[in-house]
Amino acid sequence: MADEDTVGLVLAGGGARGAYEAGAVSVLLPHLEARGERPGLLVGTSVGAMTAVYLASVGHLDAEDAVSGLLERWREVGKGEVIRSIIRGGGPSTVLHYAGEVLGVPRVRLLGLLDPSPLAATLDDWIDWRALHRNVRSGAVNALAVVTTAVASARSSVFVEGRTRKELYSSYGIDYEPVRIANVHVRASAAIPTFFPAVRIDSPARARGWYFDGGTRLNTPIKPVLDLGADRLVLLATDSIERTRVPPAKAPDAAPDFSGGAVELLQATLVDPLCNDVRMLGKINLLAGEESGSSDVDRYQEARGKRPYRQIPYIFVAPSSRGELGRRATEVFNHRYAGLKGLRSPDFALLTRLLGGVGHSHGELLSYLFFERDYVDGLIEMGRSDAKSWLDRVDGPDAPWYRDPVDQLLGGTA
Fold it and tell me: What is the model's pTM?
């Protein structure tokens, strides 16, 4: 790796699935630090923003200590640290607001199905904000970016610490805003539409407005991390990019229910764009390679006033099969909370019923909100295992970095 190369870490969204990313990070960061390649440019969406912000706050620590703290925090997270109790608080209020909106009661609106108010305090427990700003200022962290979606414009809005306005790349479809990253930016990035209410950001004035989860437009923010100057990418995702879908448990001619439709929406917004982005990265690498006549490509790009194509070596860690995290959620729920065992946590039992019961598509939905110890522990180990598999699979002089289309590495299954 060239001494001046900037390594970017890209963290996708996925709610409780972020435990999988934490597991992968716990393997990759120490390995890369030993090679002098620790990521300094951190970009996250939704729960990925939480992890990115935490890593920026511990950027002054060695990688082993940094990831140890990350895993410790994830293993302590329960539903109560993220979502207000449905039965004791949020549920009755939601029902009343829903009824009021249906009946047309003035000034009564349902802003979200769940109440994420505990998340603000959890973030402050997780993050040493002063250390974060100090690390960016000192250069221990190259830059930190949090991806949101602006409600007013329906555009991706990326809040960046570590770049001035003049240094930020002007991009079609993405607005970049230099700020000091704060609690409110992370909560906005994690405001999953329908489930959670939008979050208001008031500063700076030019960015004032309401924001939703960045994953609705840009779940795996490859373009922003390249715009911010990354030369190499570490990409972490919470679902596989394989094309094969898990067959539905119901008869093929059965009409999909609510959860089935919601899963299709999640696939379209969170998974499918990731598949396209990762595959496109490999294709651009081929195009920019010496054998593809990159000099002609560069001249064409420069003539259009754009930066020339360049190869971007990458590491990509994701579950091996589509729906794997949803199946794990179903297994844990059945083992710990099905039937009378649901009395252990009435909130989990009720949440599962609200999502349509137990099954493949229901498990997929549950996996985003299942902040449960056994599930989190299982996802951490899955992330660690998949990260080790990548390190073992990729060989050659530039390992663990890869340049070709990911389909070639995965044997055509992707």
Answer: 0.82
